[in-house]
Amino acid sequence: MYRYRINFTKEGEFACLSHLELQRTFIRALRRAGVPMAYSQGFNPQPRISFAAPLAVGIESNNEYLEVDLSASLKSDELKRALNCQLPPALAVQKVQPADPLAPALAAQVEAALYLVNFSSYALEFAAAVQSLAGATVLEVERPGKDRQKKVNIRPFIYNLCLQNVSGEGKLFMFLATGNRGGARPSEIIDLLPRQTGPVKVRRLSVFIPGPEGYITPEGEALPLFWERSY
User: What pLDDT does 122 receive?
Assistant: First the structure.
C-alpha cells in the first residue's frame, strides 16, 4: 500500500461544498483519473481516503490536506497532474507528497488551525471587543446536544486572536484548537463580536500539527511565517 498526502485549495462557490460532498468530489476525480485506489475490507469496501480536518461550509481555504492510499506507486507529479485534469481550478491540487502508510493519519495529528476573518470596516469598539475576548477566562456558547442545547466554554480552545487595521478594513487572525480534542469555530467567535454591517469573509490559512519547537504545518512550515505574510 502506498500513501500520498495531497495539498489543495477550496475557493469560490466550492467553499459551499459540505465535507461529504467534498469527499465524493475527490473520490470521483480519482476514479476518473484512473488512479489505483486501495479499498477498506468488509462487505462494502470504501476508498481509503481521509481529510486532515473538516472545513465548515462557506469557509474558503489556502491549504487543505487529504491522504489517500493507493494499491500501486505513482510519481507525485503524475498524481498531481492527473487530479488537476479532473478537478475545477477552485479545488486545485498544489502539492502531492508520499507519506508513511504506517504513521498515524494526519487527521489524528492535527491540533490547531489558523483562520483569517476579513471585516469590511475597522472600529475602536471592535478592537476593544476582540481584546475583551482575548482577556476573558470563560466564553460560553451554545451548541446542539442530543436532547437539548448545551453550553460549552470555548475559551481554552482559543490560542490567539490578532486584529489588524488594514486601510480601514479589519483583519482578524484566529489561531484555534481543532481536531479530536475539541475546538472553537470561527462563527462562534464572530457571533461574540459587535455585529458588522458589511460582508464578513472567513478563510482558513492552514492546519497545524505539533512540532519540535511549536506548531508547524503538515509540510513543516512554522506558524510565525503565516503571521508575517500579507493577506
Answer: 82
Record: fold of 2-108: Alpha-Beta Plaits (3.30.70)
Q: Which CATH code is given to the segment(s) 110-228?
A: 3.30.70
- CB contact burial 195-218 (16+ within 10 A = b; e otherwise): eeeeebebbbbbbbbeeeeebbbb
Which H helix or E strand runs over 190? Answer: helix 186-191
Between helix 19-32 and helix 76-84 the angle, nearest 10°, is 110
pTM over 0.90: yes
Q: What residue spans define the domains of the chain?
A: 2-108, 110-228
Alpha-carbon 104 to chain mean position: 18
CB 131 within 8 A of CB 192: no
Q: DSSP per residue over 13-74, as a string? A: GGGG--HHHHHHHHHHHHHHTT--B-B--SSS--B-EEESS---TT-EEEEEEEEEEESS--
Handedness of CA 175, 180, 186, 189 (dihedral sign): negative
pLDDT digits (tens, 9 = 90+) for 211-221: 888 999 999 99
Kindly indicate the confidence band of residue 224, based on its pLDDT and cuts at 50, 70 and 90.
confident
pLDDT for position 208: 96
